[in-house]
Amino acid sequence: MLTSERITETDILDGRWDNAAVEVWRVNWADTGQRVLMRRGAIGQIRRGRLAFVAEVRSLAHVLGQTVGRTFQATCDAALGDARCGVDIENPAFRGTGAVIDLLRDRAFTASGLGGFASGWFTFGTLEWTSGANAGRRTEVLGHDVSDGMAVLTLLEAPVRSIAESDAFIIRAGCDKRLETCGAKFANTASFRGFPHIPGQDAVLRYATKDGGHEGSVL
After folding, report:
1. Would residue 150 be called left, alpha or beta, if left means φ above 0 and alpha means ψ between -120 and 50 degrees?
2. 183 in helix, strand or coil?
3. SS (HEC) of 183-218
4. Among 201, 198, 137, 202, which residue's Cα sits nearest to residue 163?
5. What single string gives the DSSP state of each residue in 37-84?
6. How far is CA 152 from the centre of its chain?
7. Which class does domain 95-172 fall in?
8. Beta pairing, strands 168-172 & 95-105
9. The Bacteriophage phiJL001 Gp84 C-terminal domain covers which part of the protein (predicted)?
């Protein structure tokens, strides 16, 4: 049986211990300097029971089952702002600060400080809380709308700790991974990391007919 005062229910639900490193040691309690490492892994699935949480410990072999390398797809596979993308998301054009004005639902609220940004600018972006119960935590933005001159933000998931009025945050622009957005919004077409011209399912399923369209020209 394992117990720790440092592992709380709120932190588990908040994802703080997701993929946490785990080491299992065999220790001589009479002389704790005598020890040997028996196993190393990471926390996997966590199940919640009536009285406790049950955590799966995945071995290092679990890494061998993960996808390595790139996937050929029409949309970009880079993360906005990383080295492969190259966009500076700390640029004031892509970064804003604000605070909660009114809570609409557990994950939607109106916000101040974003009046200079068009509707949808921060959709699929990230929001980092700088004050309040969620300070230091980052979450994804599902939607950014402007209603009556007021910014309305909807988060992908409701925080474990409740949002309160006046909670401050930093928000960064989002990208839907399309070539059109890369060029129009970020002027970054040269660094686009997708393959927008690969044939889609319609081309794969197309079959020969007598009425043209199969003379070898560009589809």
Report:
1. beta
2. helix
3. HHHHCCHHHCCCCCCCCCHHHHCCCCCCCCCCCCCC
4. 137
5. EEEEEEEEEEEE-SS-EEEEEEEGGGGGGS--S----SS--SPTTSTT
6. 20
7. mainly beta
8. antiparallel
9. 120-202
Domain with CATH 2.40.30 in the chain: 95-172
Strand partners of residue 147: 150
- CA–CA dist 103, 134 (Å, integer): 15
Count H helices and E strands in the chain, helices first: 3, 9
Please identify which residue in the block is written with the tokens 């220790």. Answer: 27
Element housing 204 (H / E): helix 201-204
| 103 token code pair | 């809570």
Identify whether the C-beta of residue 182 lies closer than 8 Å to the C-beta of residue 175.
yes
Tokens of 75: 């949309």
| 135-170 pLDDT per residue, tens | 999 999 999 999 888 999 999 999 989 999 999 999
Q: How far apart are the first and last CA of the chain?
A: 64
Which two three-digit tokens encode residue 83?
Answer: 């080295």
Task: Enter the pTM of the model.
Answer: 0.75
How far CA 26 is from CA of 39, 56, 142, 144, in Å, comes to: 10, 20, 46, 52
List, in sequence order, the alpha helices (H) in 97-170. Answer: none
Two tokens, residue 79:
């993360």
- Taking the C-alpha atoms of residue 163 and residue 105, their distance in angstroms, rounded to an integer, is 10
